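Budget justification, computational time. The allocation requested in the original proposal was used primarily to generate structure tokens for proteins on the priority list. As evidence of use, we reproduce two of the resulting records. The first is shown immediately below.
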Amino acid sequence: MTRAATAVGNRAPAELDALAAAMREASGEDDAILGGVLVAGADGLVLFAEVREVQADTVAAMAAVVAGIASKLIERAGVGESKACLFEGSSGHVAVFPMKDDMVLLVFSKDEVTTGLFNLAARGVLSRLRKALAQPSANAAEPGDSTPDEKPGDTTNAEPVDAIAAEPGT
């Protein structure tokens, strides 16, 4: 079942479209290991789901609670901030990754996958999703396009460029 949610809470349709595109990009690898992916809001509502034989709405709500409890446990244990929860069942694994302050990523394994392989594949999905979400959207201005306040060649708001290599002897 693939499902991209329509406007959920205060999320704009464009934000959900970007999330769905990022999820399609992020979840395309490791098909032999991964059994599905789901993104939920911190409120437990499904934002994107590509899962089979999973009650997406129930699991999303539970994952939001798990992420909250994990965050409090990690904080009280004094070991930093929560990065992931990994659950191992008799026929697969589920990883819960907090994303930003308002999203949770769930990654499901297929049967008979080792914990190590699943952990690597799930973190790969997380990394690719974060990278895809960080990229400017297709609606962003292309380089060379100028906005009404900007003139071509104006570098007032340009970011500094780091030197590629230092000169020998410096």
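The second record produced under the same allocation is shown here.
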Amino acid sequence: MNQDFVRGAIPVTLITNFREQKRLEQTLRRGRRLSIVGLLQPEISFIYGLVIGGVDRKAYIKMMESEARGAQRSKRIRVIVQDNGPIHRCNEVQKIWSKWENQGLYILFLPKYCSEMNPRELEWQHIKKDELAGQTFEDELELAYAVINGVEARGKKGNYSTKRIKLRAERPT
């Protein structure tokens, strides 16, 4: 260490209003991923599903089929904006696009690496920053309940409805 630097240093005392510093120990156990899939209509509604692990292609198709039927019943076009996630562009899904369009459901894709253009991503950032920040969770289930509560709280603050749907996780092969 440079002694001249130490001799010329000005002592600094850090003063805080905290009497005791909080220390959080991180466990060695690494949890599984909690995935969220949702349909956000800004300032109107957020329909979402949570699953521990990855989202099953069939669950995604089921969700989109429901939206297509809703568009057909209402005789109003629905446009869903999505990122370029693999589940959104897999062969099985691409084969159904024309059917959905005939029912009035259209899919638009955001440019790659532009999550800031996706309102769902911005909402997720708010949930993490405003509702989940500073919390630790014992397991995936505890995290899932905290996310559900966070989504509900954001819905109340934003005065929009929220609805949780059930999804299935991918089965390891």
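A brief technical remark on that second record: The longest helix spans residues 140-158.
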